[in-house]
Design a protein that fits this description.
alpha/beta; Rossmann fold; seven-stranded parallel β-sheet; 9 helices; binds NADP nicotinamide-adenine-dinucleotide phosphate
């Protein structure tokens, strides 16, 4: 899907957070293949530069990199400023950066928990505010917030953060959709990326049929965005699980806490 442009550039421009691996990496490749120029944002400059070189040579698009830790307010501000820039307008924002904490709530310092909240909630809120502030007056643009099916489940502060992202995205789409700007929450289930590895979780901690492929997740997400969907839940099995989750008491859901955790 090619998101239309608001500016006399040759190609539309997408800013993707968390593009150095997993779902964000799949977005970067898919969007470049579809003819978007890109701004790539994550913490590791070296990985960003390597990816930018690959994308330029594979797809012939322009790629800028912005090394920033979105959990740190002063670095986040650089990205906010880039999104508000009228001279180089961003047509599509994809908020994919994120991580899970290795330990349970009380084993973490409150600063670890605050960093998760800052990355998953504050950064998404502030980047969306900056992007919509420029997009809405022009009546053009789109935001994809990578949330999670976990937002429907009682799975710690990560779930609580994702519930916020899903609700925020639904509200924003309802509010700004008729002004030409789309906001969609993407709710993947377990997806093979670096996410669980970084948490020291074994891939067999959830049954193999529950694992999704990141490229397929992104393909479905972009199709859903083009169709005007407010929520994108890739795969039939997770669409069924999401319906079940919303109608199952929290006490029953809590019995499945161990999935994807060992
Ligand atoms: N994998 C799953 O099963 C799954 C399921 C549902 C939802 N999700 C969500 O999908 C999104 C992408 O996760 P993934 O599975 O693709 O994980 P991943 O493979 O670990 O990729 C995470 C990306 O986010 C970046 N990142 C992490 N923290 C950051 C920070 N503070 N500031 C800037 N960049 C940061 C990482 O790059 P650097 O390390 O270079 O900063 C990396 O590019 C996350 O929001 C996650 O919550 C994942």
């Amino acid at each position: 899907m090619l998101v239309a442009m608001s500016h006399p550039r040759t190609r539309p421009l997408a800013l993707v957070t968390g593009p150095t691996s997993g779902i964000g990496l799949s977005f970067a490749h898919r969007l470049a293949a579809d003819g978007h120029d890109l701004v790539l944002v994550s913490r590791t400059r070296e990985r960003l530069e390597t990816l930018a070189t690959t994308l330029r040579s594979s797809y012939g698009v322009e790629v800028d990199v912005l090394a920033a830790d979105l959990g740190r307010r002063e670095e986040l501000a650089l990205v906010e400023r880039r999104l508000a820039d009228e001279d180089r307008p961003v047509d599509l924002l994809v908020n994919s950066a994120g991580f899970g904490l290795k330990r349970p709530f009380l084993a973490n310092s409150v600063e670890d928990e605050q960093y998760l909240l800052d990355t998953h909630v504050t950064a998404v809120l502030r980047l969306m505010h900056a992007a919509l502030g420029r997009m809405v007056p022009h009546g053009h643009g789109a935001v994809v917030n990578v949330s999670s099916i976990a937002g429907f489940l009682p799975r710690g502060t990560y779930s609580a953060a994702k519930a916020y992202v899903t609700a925020l995205s639904q509200w924003a789409d309802l509010t700004y959709g008729d002004r030409g700007v789309r906001v969609m929450a993407l709710l993947p289930g377990f997806t093979r990326t670096e996410f669980h590895e970084r948490m020291d979780v074994r891939p067999d901690s959830a049954p193999s049929w529950l694992w999704l492929d990141a490229d397929r997740v992104v393909q479905e997400a972009l199709r859903d965005l083009a169709r005007g969907r407010r929520l994108s839940v890739p795969s039939r099995r997770y669409r069924a699980i999401s319906v079940l989750a919303r109608h199952t008491p929290a006490g029953v859901q809590a019995r499945f806490q161990g999935l994807g955790r060992r």
